[in-house]
Amino acid sequence: MLTLLDNRLWFPDPSQALIEPNGLLAVGGDLSPERLLLAYRMGIFPWYDQSQPLLWWSPDPRAVLEPDKLHISRSLARLARRGQYRLTVNTAFEQVIRACRQLRETQEAGTWITAGIEQAYCRLHQLGHAHSIEVWQGERLVAGLYGIGLGTLFCGESMFHRVDNGSKLAMLGLCRHLHRHGGELIDCQLPTPHLMSLGATSWPRSRFLHKLKERQQQPLSQGCWQSGELTL
Description:
The protein has helices spanning 33-41, 74-82, 93-107, 115-126, 166-180, 193-197, 205-215; strands spanning 3-5, 24-28, 45-46, 55-57, 62-65, 86-89, 130-137, 140-150, 153-161, 185-189, 201-203, 228-230. The protein is of the alpha+beta class. The chain folds into two domains: 3-59, Leucyl/phenylalanyl-tRNA-protein transferase, N-terminal domain (Alpha-Beta Plaits); 63-230, Aminopeptidase (3-Layer(aba) Sandwich). The strands form two sheets. The chain has an eight-stranded mixed β-sheet with strand order 11-5-10-9-8-7-6-12, sandwiched between helices. α3 packs antiparallel against α4 (115-126). The chain is globular and about 50 Å long.
C-alpha cells in the first residue's frame, strides 16, 4: 500500500512497502532534517527525480557491506600503497554532493540528487549527521562519497570519481576509517553488480531493520567524524 504523507512527522511501517516497484512506501512530506533522520532511523530513504513527487523507499532485499569485508583488488591495493592521492573526512561535503549531482546530470537524463536534496543533506552535514570522504590529487578533488551516520551504521548515498578507481579508493577509505572507529555496517540500499563486486551482500529487509535498530544505538569511537586527514 502506498501511503500519502501530510505535514505530520511520521512514516508507515516499512513492511507495508510495495513489492513492485520494489520498496516504494510513501509519497509526499518534506526534506526537513527531522523527517530525513526519522526516515533513515526506520530504514527508509528518499529517491525521486525532478519530474516526480517526493518518493520514499525501503527495498527488500537490502544491499549491505561490512567494512572489514570490502573486496580489495590487487590494483586497488597498489593504488592505495602508492600514496599519490590524499584522503580526508568531512572537509568538502558540499563539493562532494555537488560533484555527485553534476556527474549524474551528465550521464543520465535526470538525477535523484535534486537541488532540494543537495540543500537538505548539506543542512544535515551542518547538524553533524551527514558525512563525506574526499580523495584529493594535490589540491584537486578527484573522488568522494557521502552518507548519513547512525551510530555504528553508515547509510551510503552516492559517490563520484574523476580518476580511475577514485570512488573505490574513497570506499576503501570509508571502510578502513569506520572499522578503526568501531563501525559495523554500511547500508548500500539497492544491490548492484558493482556493489556486489566490492563485497556487498543482500539481506532480507527484516534482518537489515533489526540490525539498524541495534547499530544506531551504538556510538563510534570519539573523533570519527572530526574533519581532517584520513589514514589508509
